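Customer escalation, tier 2.

The customer says the design service returned an amino acid string that "doesn't look like it belongs to this structure." They asked us to rerun it and document both sides in this ticket. The original C-alpha cells are below, unchanged.
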C-alpha cells in the first residue's frame, strides 16, 4: 500500500504544488516589473507583493506541510494493512487448504471486479478507452545462491510488454522492478507444467513457493492481492516451462503470477499478461498477441480482447 501513498504524494506535487509554484514565479516576475503609480502611493506594487506573499504562506502551510502529514499518516496505515495482508498470505501459503482457498479467492475477486467493470467493458467495445494502468514486476529465483537469470536478459520482454499495452490498450503498464528471492524454488531445474497438472501443483509446495516469494518480494502489494483490485502481476522466471515447446505460462484468474523463460520471444510476458487478464489463445491469426505462435515483433489485439483486458481486476484507474 506504500505505493499508493507515493502516488498520492506525487499527485499533490504535480497537480497542486507545482502549478502554484509556477504561478508564484510568474507573479514575482510581474511584481519586479511593476511600475510604481505615484497617484496610488505605490500601493499597486505593495499589493502585488502582498498577494504573492499570501499565496506562498498558504502553499507552505496547506500544501507543503499538508502533503507530508498525509504521506506520514498514509505510510503508517499502509504498513499496518500490509502486515495484515502478509499474515493472510502466510495462511494462503499452507499447502492444500491454503492453495484451494487462494484459488477460490482469486476467482471470486475476478468475478466481483469484472461485474464492477461492465461499463468499462461496454465503453471499450465502443472505442472509449480512458487511460488506465497495470503493474507488473519480476521475481528471479536462484540455485545455490546463483540467480537463474538477470533483469538485463528479460529486459526485451519487459520493454515489449510496456509498448504493446500502451499502443493497443491505452494502458500504462508500470514495471515495479526486479526481486532476487532467497526462497529456494521447488526444484532444480526450476520447471512449471503449463496444464492441469500445474494448476493442481499450485495447491501444493509449488504454490507455497510462489505465495511466499510474492509476499516477501512484493510486500507492499499484498493487500491488493487479497482484495483483487489493481493486484500486481508478478512474473516468475523459471528454467523451463513444460510441455515443450512452451516458453511461458499464465493460469488466468486462478493466480496473480505468470511464468517466462529467459532468452525466449520478446512478446512472451505481454502474451502471458493477456492470459492473466482472462484472455485465451487466438488461433488463425499469427499477428495476434494471443496467438500460440508468440513473436518478437509488434503484434495486435482485437477490440474484444482489448476490452477484456481493460475490465480485468489488474487494470485500474487509480
Amino acid at each position: 500500500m506504500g505505493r499508493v501513498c507515493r502516488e498520492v504524494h506525487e499527485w499533490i506535487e504535480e497537480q497542486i504544488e507545482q502549478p502554484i509554484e509556477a504561478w508564484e514565479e510568474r507573479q514575482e516576475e510581474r511584481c519586479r516589473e511593476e511600475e510604481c503609480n505615484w497617484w496610488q502611493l505605490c500601493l499597486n506594487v505593495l499589493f502585488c507583493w502582498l498577494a504573492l506573499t499570501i499565496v506562498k504562506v498558504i502553499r507552505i502551510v496547506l500544501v507543503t506541510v499538508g502533503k507530508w502529514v498525509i504521506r506520514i499518516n498514509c505510510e503508517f496505515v499502509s504498513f499496518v494493512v500490509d502486515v495484515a495482508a502478509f499474515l493472510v498470505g502466510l495462511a494462503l501459503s499452507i499447502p492444500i487448504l491454503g492453495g484451494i482457498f487462494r484459488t477460490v479467492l482469486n476467482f471470486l475477486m475476478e468475478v466481483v471486479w469484472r461485474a464492477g467493470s461492465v461499463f468499462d467493458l461496454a465503453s471499450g467495445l465502443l472505442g472509449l478507452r480512458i487511460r488506465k494502468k497495470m503493474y507488473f514486476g519480476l521475481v528471479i529465483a536462484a540455485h545455490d545462491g546463483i540467480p537463474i537469470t538477470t533483469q538485463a536478459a528479460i529486459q526485451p520482454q519487459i520493454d515489449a510488454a510496456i509498448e504493446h499495452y500502451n499502443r493497443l490498450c491505452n494502458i500504462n503498464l508500470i514495471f515495479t522492478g526486479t526481486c532476487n528471492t532467497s526462497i529456494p524454488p521447488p526444484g532444480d531445474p526450476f520447471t512449471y507444467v503449463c496444464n492441469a497438472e500445474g494448476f493442481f501443483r499450485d495447491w501444493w509446495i509449488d504454490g507455497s513457493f510462489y505465495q511466499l516469494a510474492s509476499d516477501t518480494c512484493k510486500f507492499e502489494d499484498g493487500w491488493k492481492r487479497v482484495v483483487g483490485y489493481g493486484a500486481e502481476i508478478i512474473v516468475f522466471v523459471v528454467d523451463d516451462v513444460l510441455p515443450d515447446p512452451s516458453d511461458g505460462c499464465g493460469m488466468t484468474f486462478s493466480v496473480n503470477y505468470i511464468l517466462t523463460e529467459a532468452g525466449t520471444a520478446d512478446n512472451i510476458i505481454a502474451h502471458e499478461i493477456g492470459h492473466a487478464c482472462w484472455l485465451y489463445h487466438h488461433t488463425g491469426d499469427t499477428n495476434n498477441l494471443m496467438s500460440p505462435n508468440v513473436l518478437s515483433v509488434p503484434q495486435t489485439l482485437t477490440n474484444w480482447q482489448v476490452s477484456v483486458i481493460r475490465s480485468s481486476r489488474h487494470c485500474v484507474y487509480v
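Tier 2 assessment: The sequence is consistent with the input. The mean pLDDT is 91. The longest strand covers residues 171-180. Sent an explanation to the customer and offered a walkthrough call.
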